[in-house]
Design brief:
By secondary structure, the protein is α+β, with helices and mostly antiparallel strands. It is built from 2 helices and 4 strands. It is globular and about 45 Å long. The termini are far apart. The model has no long low-confidence stretch (mean pLDDT about 80).
Length: about 100
């Protein structure tokens, strides 16, 4: 995986071994000053639930440990945002009931 960090197929094959609950990465190829770079824009569970990452998107570069840390922080931030949005919606719904 380390030697092929710019190739999405080995990344998706092995990501579930690194992050529990993440079964696949959704990536886009982006042209940058370093050539074509992959950006992770979302993660998927085994049940095909998708969690869109918050900005900035995680760029997959040659340092696997660096982008893995960024992916973890970004996924945590995205989950916090989703939980907050859900809790606000639940609070509004409970006010309508009573």
């Amino acid at each position: 995986m380390i030697g092929q960090s710019g190739d999405p197929k080995p990344l998706n094959k092995n990501i579930k071994k690194i992050f529990e609950g993440i079964n696949a990465l959704e990536m886009d190829g982006v042209n940058s000053g370093k050539g074509k770079t992959l950006q992770i824009r979302a993660v998927k569970s085994a049940e095909q639930e998708t969690l869109n990452l918050v900005e900035p998107l995680v760029e997959v570069d040659s340092q696997v440990q660096d982008w893995c840390k960024k992916l973890q922080r970004n996924a945590e931030d995205a989950l916090k945002k989703e939980f907050y949005t859900f809790s606000q919606g639940a609070a509004i719904q409970s006010k309508k009931i009573f």
